[in-house]
Automatic annotation (TrEMBL):
This is General transcription and DNA repair factor IIH subunit TFB5. SUPFAM superfamilies: TFB5-like. In NER, TFIIH acts by opening DNA around the lesion to allow the excision of the damaged oligonucleotide and its replacement by a new DNA fragment. In transcription, TFIIH has an essential role in transcription initiation. When the pre-initiation complex (PIC) has been established, TFIIH is required for promoter opening and promoter escape. The keyword DNA repair applies. It comes from the Eukaryota. InterPro entries: TFB5-like_sf, TFIIH_TTDA/Tfb5. SMART domains: Tbf5. The keyword GTP-binding does not apply. It is found in: Nucleus. It comes from Panagrellus redivivus (Microworm). Gene3D superfamilies: TFB5-like. Belongs to the TFB5 family.
Length: 80
């Protein structure tokens, strides 16, 4: 395999390094597995508290997580 062939196989993807607790990590993995955003967005699971996510999907993910928070804890919005 020549150097030119190796370069053709290079794949880069812009992502965001995310630190979270294990419960948030599992929620993000669940949303990814169920394609809640229309496609998968977890690029790599790095360890128990770190994920590498598709940067283009972060705004959509933030909206979904905010909706989930409001569903689970409606009182929080009333205090603000």
């Amino acid at each position: 395999m020549s150097d030119v062939d190796k370069i053709d196989q290079l794949h880069c993807q812009k992502g965001i390094y995310v630190t979270c607790d294990s419960s948030m990590r599992e929620l993000i993995k669940y949303l990814d597995a169920n394609r809640t955003l229309g496609c998968t967005f977890v690029i790599e699971e790095l360890d128990d508290t770190h994920l590498f996510l598709d940067a283009k999907k972060i705004p959509d993910l933030e909206k979904i997580l905010e909706q989930r928070r409001e569903e689970l804890c409606p009182d929080i919005n009333e205090r603000d």
